[in-house]
Specification:
The complex is a heterodimer of chains A (about 525) and B (about 210). Chain A is of the alpha/beta class. Helices cover about 35% and strands about 20% of the residues of chain A. Chain A is elongated. At the A-B interface, loops of A face strand 7, strand 8 and helix 4 of B.
Chain lengths: ~525, ~210
Amino acid sequence: MIRDRTSRGRMTRRRMLAVVAGLVAVVVLSACAQYPADPDWVPRAREGATVELVVASPESASPASSIPTPTGLDVRRIQGAADSSITAEWAEIPGNDAFNGVLVDRVRSAAAEHAQATGVGFSPGTLPVAGAPPGATTLAVTFEIVAAAGTVLAEQVRVTRSTDGVVTSDETTVYFADTTGAFVMTSDAFLTDSGLRALLKQIVESVKIDRGAFEPSMQQSVEDFPVNQLRADFSDITFANGGSMQVRLPAGFTTPELDRLAPSPGDRTSTTVVVPSGAAFAMLTEHGRVIQDALGAGQPLSLPAASFRGDRPVDCALFSCVALTFDDGPGPYTDGVLDALNARRSAATFFVVGSSAVRRPSVVRRMHAEGHGVENHTWSHPSLTSLTPAGVVDQIQRTSGALSNLTGERVAYFRPPYGDIDAEVSAAAVLPAILWSVDTLDWQKPGDAVLLERAVQRVSPGGIILCHDVHESTARMVPAIVDGLIARGFTLVTVEQLLASHPPGPGAVVSRAG
Amino acid sequence: MPAEMPSRRHRVRRVLIGLGIAAAIAGLLAGGGVILLPKLLANYPVTRFETTTRVVLRSGESSASIEAQRGWVKLGVFEPPDVVRLLTPDRRSRSEVSIQETDRDAETLGLGALQSSTLADDVPADETGAEDAPDLDAPTWSDESLANGLEVTHTTVEGARADLILAIVSDPAAGSGPSRTVLVVRTEVPPGQADRYLTVVADLVMSVEVSG
């Protein structure tokens, strides 16, 4: 009996334990099975940014990658003489005076500000520019072509001032020009007032999304931001192929609302905002839409036919001008010399012998048509000091008459053969006499290297170089000479352009400008 | 009779041994229960919301509510009224929302919440490099004024086991004086998924209503 009771007790306890364990298991399992995971549920997607934020390296100056300078643009450069520490380079549209004038004025004003700040006035110098002394302030104007399509060119001009190699100011302006001269504008005129505010809103909201804000919509009213400030902030604009608008934000751009958010990883010192084409269109002024349309279409750049250097005014107080002159032609090599000059957008002056000119009238006409100076080198190349005044007059007037007949223009200067001139010759000739500051002595056939060194290295701004286009060795070296002079920062001009600021009077004898 | 004596002693010994074992098991169960039961109860799924539902939290005379959307699961048995724990429908993200009366600023409050987080020992710096360890001492905070007038201070801390999104929400329009009502929303999401689940926290935060 006792054994039976004990056995029944054990069985009861076991049953109870089993029941409790079963209940626990059921509760636990049912809890898990009751609310299974929903495999189809996903978190709500975050709001998409309406504009794309592209973070560039701080060194990058351009909202878009710059493009190679299109062929046909006229790259100009200036550099100050030793103490002025100025270098500037920009690209002009040949013949587009409105656009080119804007760029030159920008360079002039930067140089004037630099002169005022440093107390050193600008005067043209040559390359390479001497290293700035310790503590010196330098000015650099550089350019990049950021877009070019159809008849629209977008050129970014960057003005950087540095002291001891540390940048103290850095201003960038993107100019947009119609290559036919229809307009020139800067990109701060692209956006309407409402467009500026819409852009601000989209930028703020995109940055908020980028920084993980809970509330992506902009909370501060866009009306709180002065339009002029926005126009300044959103002035670095260009358009990509397809019409999307690229706006480079100024370094440190922020708003009070963005200031309160933790920055996202990555350098935010140079951020470009890319606005899709359609959204950008709604923000643009009429001019802005013209630019967007042209650049968005991506047609090849259309440039007007390049004018000749000698046909355009050149400010030799700004540019390092030099006059390359050729005597005794025209000859059999003169056409080759003209080809070399034109390929390099460079002007020269030809002191032609009258009797040779009438034998090669087409070459003389070509010289004139291509903007070069065509001046008087007597009829038969005598030493004028050995002639009577009447003989001098005959040599000069006969030649000037023939040249005027060929070119349709009055001859302005003469060069006495061998440089032989005295007061009587000057008085008889009446025309100002042009001598030279560098005689290459090319007629002596000194060898290519020596000729190149004399023509390129011995000249300074305002100089006049004497060569002869009747020698094959000279004609052959003209490309190298012109390239060498350009590489030293010179602009090759005619004698008339060189002396334009101080034209010599009758009977004057000039061997260099200034 | 003498033959029964050993048998009786034997039974007594067996009973004593049995009692000893039972006591040991009971002790173990009790000890384990004390440790495990609260956690078990806190994480026990009690409700799945079939519609979007406003969940109320109370602390003293203050109250606030948040909106749990359809499919979310409420966790916890015998939970105090100032805390609510929620599980997303995919069961991968868990939020703990608590209401507090405090005069501390949001960042101080948040720093305390972070440092009491289990993330503090989440990533051993000597194994992964110090830069990979969650920076719980100097998090980068974001402050936002939401469209509904709420102020929120939040940060995200990445960990090896989970990422933590911490938000401190208050309503400047509700009440005045040095002490104010705040909601601390602490959300753990799978590692590397903080961006993906940010909207989950944002929706919770933006649904907050503080009534005093």
